TrEMBL record:
SUPFAM superfamilies: (Trans)glycosidases, Beta-galactosidase LacA, domain 3, Galactose-binding domain-like, Glycosyl hydrolase domain. Its EC number is 3.2.1.23. InterPro entries: Betagal_dom2, Betagal_dom2_sf, BetaGal_dom3, BetaGal_dom3_sf, BetaGal_jelly_roll_dom, Galactose-bd-like_sf, GH, Gly_Hdrlase_35_cat. This is beta-galactosidase. GO terms for molecular function: beta-galactosidase activity. It comes from the Bacteria.
Length: 927
């Protein structure tokens, strides 16, 4: 969790309508109500943003953002576009964020994804920032942009490009060379962002986040960004309005505790990190990143499916979006629960008289206690290590006001002649709600579970909450023509409630797994969305709407007792899908670099004596660090010619990697062994794993070296070394990677080193796709490679063969035939034995989707195969696996299969991601 805020005294001292332009770095701001004597009053929030061509004012006071004079409680969900290398699917996830209650998307940009070399920048294809910003605007979401230069986010080097490690610049506010490169990066980003600012009406970029490494750089960075034409507010550590961020909530209860804690502090800028997890594909991840899927705690997982953490975020997001009272809260008089194990924060909105109560139970047991709310001691239960949010005094329309309730409000909106309010709780709870009613109500129980009684001008409603069931109560009275509808839902049922704002009015939809969009067209509401199973469809709509269509098809419907349009027949679910078996495999052994006669004349000579790294060069050794020779990602090969190696008895190789590092060594083509770094003892605390592999030469090899001295003069022996996983730490990106030193026993040979890593960056897939394996350098992972001469083999059978140290490639092709109206996320599962000396690099249509590392526990992870890269419409897919196996490990990956990770009838149209089939092919580039 991150939280930037002033002390309460300093915070409260700021004037209510003071626009904090200086704190925001000179944001485009003006008092929303010129001449007003006090704070901007609570009122309806601004509507969904769009690129409407109109100028907009963005300001803030000590309570919230002010957009065109209206208070906005920001509920942002963080999404990293670079973790989803399929631009069509950006729309899918953005639509889901909006449906699940977010009004903004928080975006980090990885400099290293866009820049393969100094001065070279690419914003095309899967790196098309302009396309992403346009899509966010079309989905009705504000954008909070965080371009770095450093972003952290478990990305290699925190997002800094690999080539920066080999420059003289060491980072920091006073480092001229670093600042020169960083300025160029920001200038390139800002040229795009400036065209998509909400203030100009040309996009929905609302806020720009700055996280300078040193405070001394803040002023300079601010001036740099303003000079580039960025005029939206700037957020940074000194911004008085707090940025409340929750990361890594392990379950729904923890998500509630942390987000409610921010709400209790009056925070109105909220960020869910991560709302979408995505993948750590290619050589993107830092040592700290989980693989292959990033952030298993995310509300939407890498396969774009909802997770158990989603329900409280969905509920709170819609509460902040549809109940404006929560955009301005002040600390109110202390309130205590009867049981001290329940901590209580009491807040109030001075404009509306609404009160909020945040209850937290950090104990290991459920606690039932009483809490004074609305003048009554109300019995409440807070589960163990959980939290609850209650409210009193909310105006719910038709002159009725919430006296108190032991369930959380989720939304309150007017639709046609209805005032609809939804309350949520846990399945199995007894919901109790009390309304202050100025006139005698006429309640109608629409579902059998509800009960009610009216006494002392108060309507008491009781509803037992059942699993995935919505209970409805209708309330009318003689003095108003407006009808109140009370909805009660548990977590599961709340995830199928979808409020939506159209230019012609609001609607509320119940039933499907997702509502993507709604358009009022004459007398018809046209809905688009997703279903998984057969689902009811119910919609509360403005007056005059009498028909429904779903995904372009008319739905037979009629009005029900809840005054909603209801489909006569359930919406269809997703049809059964059958995935093909993966067969037709071909195999080829690799690593010719290990053979003594291999021609390495084109390799880089490694003979430097000084390094750009922060790691000292070992005494008496040349610089062997990969970055100093321009190899920043993936595997690195070394070949050393040893002159005077007769009598050599052992070789010690020191190396430095990221997590799961591995070293293999050969001498004159004979395997010396495999070494891996693991355990806390090997990690320096900064994301660098170090190891020293000591290999004693086999007797036959020692004899051969002695014989060579007598028979061939002093012909050099060849030491070949492969170092894997050269990822850079987030906070120590200049720490060396690759081989560090070689030491010998029994002889003191002279060594002439050469090094080879990744070839030129893939012009379509980007600089993070390829490493330095022979097969990568020669296109064995690409769909266009001719593998007709490879050996036919079964990966499962190969896993039972004799062990072999080295690299073995496997390739196959397969076809899917998924109906166009179905969204089917697919994963790849490797069911082989969890050998810790086996690494498998997965390539789909030439895209490096990550590394499988043995040695884990539990079921093997599924590699998400993003649709777009994965061809699902009767087109061929090429799957390639590069298997690195130690000397005690068979050279096969074991059984390999496709797994359906979900499925929905609906989805978004997906365009194929360019996947050229030969090295250097530019593919299709987007301008």
């Amino acid at each position: 969790m991150e939280l930037n805020r002033l002390g309460r005294r300093a915070f409260s001292a700021l004037a209510g309508t003071t626009v904090l332009g200086l704190a925001l770095g000179g944001s485009v701001s003006s008092a929303a109500l010129p001449g007003a004597a006090g704070p901007v009053p609570t009122g309806p929030p601004p509507g969904p943003p769009e690129a409407d061509g109109a100028r907009h004012r963005v300001a803030l006071d000590r309570y919230s953002l002010l957009v065109d004079g209206r208070r906005l409680a920001l509920w942002a969900g963080e999404l990293h576009p670079f973790r989803l290398p399929s631009p069509s699917l950006w729309r899918d996830v953005l639509q889901k964020l909006r449906a699940y209650g977010h009004n903004a998307v928080s975006v980090r940009l990885a400099w290293n994804e866009h820049s393969p070399a100094p001065g070279a920048y690419d914003f095309t294809g899967v790196r098309d920032l302009g396309l992403f910003l346009r899509t966010a605007a079309e989905c009705g979401l504000y954008v909070v942009l965080h371009p770095g230069p450093y972003i952290g986010a478990d990305v290699d080097a925190g997002g800094l490009p690999g080539w920066l490690t080999a420059t003289g610049g060491r980072g920091g506010a006073t480092d001229r060379e670093y600042l020169r490169h960083a300025d160029e990066w920001l200038r390139r980003v800002d040229a795009i962002v400036a065209r998509h600012q909400f203030t100009r009406g040309t996009g929905t970029v609302l806020l720009y986040r700055l996280d300078p490494a040193e405070r001394a750089g803040l002023t300079r960075l601010h001036e740099r960004i303003r000079a580039d034409g960025i005029d939206v507010p700037l957020l940074h550590a000194d911004t008085p309005l707090a940025w409340g961020e929750v990361a890594g909530a392990r379950d729904a209860a923890e998500a509630r505790r942390e987000h409610f804690a921010h709400l209790a502090q009056g925070i109105t800028l909220h960020n869910v990190r991560m709302a979408f997890g995505g993948t750590s594909w290619g050589w993107l991840p830092a040592p700290s990143a989980p693989t292959p899927a990033y952030d298993p705690t995310a509300a939407i997982d890498a396969a774009r499916r909802p997770t158990p953490a989603l329900a409280p975020l969905h509920q709170l997001g819609h509460l902040l979006r549809h109940v404006p009272d929560f955009a301005r809260l002040e600390e109110a008089d202390e309130v205590r629960a009867a049981d001290a194990r329940v901590a209580v924060r009491h807040l109030a909105n001075p404009d509306t008289g609404a009160h909020a109560y945040v209850l937290r139970n950090d104990s290991a047991a459920d606690v039932t206690s009483t809490l004074p709310m609305g003048g009554t001691d109300v019995e409440v239960t807070v589960p163990a290590r959980d939290a609850k949010l209650f409210a009193t005094g909310l105006h719910l329309g038709s002159g009725r006001k919430l006296a108190y309730a032991n369930v959380q409000p989720m939304l309150s909106l007017s639709v046609g002649g209805l005032d609809i309010t939804a309350f949520v709780g846990r399945a199995g709870e007894q919901a109790r709600l009390v309304l202050d009613c100025p006139d005698d109500p006429w309640p109608t129980r629409l579902d059998e579970e509800a009960a009610w009684v009216f006494e002392d001008r108060r309507l008491h409603v009781t509803v037992p909450l059942a699993e995935d069931r919505l209970t409805r109560v209708r309330v009318r009275s003689a003095d108003t023509d407006r009808t109140m509808l009370l909805l009660f839902a548990d977590d599961a049922a709340s995830l199928r409630l979808w409020p939506y704002e159209t230019p012609s009015g609001r609607i509320l939809v119940r039933g499907p797994e997702l509502l993507r969009g709604a358009v009022l067209d004459g007398a018809t509401v046209r809905l688009t969305g997703d279903t998984v199973g057969e689902r009811e469809l119910e919609a509360w709509v403005p007056r005059g709407i009498t028909g429904i269509s779903w995904n372009g098809e008319a739905v037979q419907s009629g009005f029900g007792r809840a005054l909603s349009l209801m489909a006569v027949w359930p919406l269809p679910g997703v049809p059964e899908l059958v995935l093909p078996a993966l067969d037709g495999w071909r195999r080829r052994s690799e690593n010719p670099e290990s053979r003594p006669g291999y021609g390495d004349e084109g390799w880089t000579v490694a003979d430097r004596r000084t390094s750009r790294s922060t790691t000292p060069v070992p005494k008496g050794q040349p610089v062997l660090f990969a970055d100093d020779y321009g190899f920043h990602y993936g595997d690195v090969w070394y070949r050393g010619r040893l002159t005077g190696a007769a009598g050599l008895e052992s070789v010690s190789l020191s190396y430095r990697t990221g997590a799961h590092g591995l070293l293999m060594a050969w001498l004159d083509g004979e395997p010396l062994g495999t070494h891996r770094v693991s355990g806390a003892a090997a990690e320096d605390g900064g994301g660098t794993w170090t190891g020293t592999a000591r290999f004693r030469l086999p007797g036959a090899l020692r004899a051969a070296l002695r014989a060579r001295r007598t028979g061939d003069g002093d012909a050099p022996a060849v030491l070949s070394v492969l170092v894997r996983r050269t990822q850079h730490a987030q906070d120590a990106h200049r720490s060396a990677r690759g081989l560090a030193a070689a030491r010998f026993e029994g002889a003191a040979p002279d060594v002439a080193w050469r090094i080879m890593g990744a070839a030129a960056p893939d012009p379509v897939r980007g600089p993070l796709n390829n490493g330095g394996l022979y097969g990568e350098r020669y296109g064995w992972h690409l769909p266009g490679h001719d593998d007709a001469g490879w050996e036919a083999v079964s990966p499962a059978a190969a896993a039972r063969e004799e062990p072999r140290q080295g690299v073995t490639w496997y390739r196959t092709t397969f076809r899917l035939d998924v109906p166009p109206e179905v969204d089917a996320p697919v994963g790849l599962v490797l069911d082989g034995s969890p050998d810790r000396d086996r690494r498998v690099q997965v390539f789909l249509n030439g895209w490096n989707l990550g590394e499988y590392t043995g040695g884990g526990t539990g079921a093997p992870p599924a590699f998400v195969l993003p649709n777009g890269i994965l061809r699902t419409r009767a087109a061929a897919n090429t799957l390639a696996l590069a298997v690195l196996s130690g000397g005690d490990t068979p050279p096969g990956p074991g059984p390999v299969r496709l797994e359906l990770l979900g499925g929905a009838a609906g989805g978004v149209p997906v365009e194929p991601v360019p996947s050229p089939g030969s090295p250097g092919s530019p593919g299709t580039r987007r301008g």
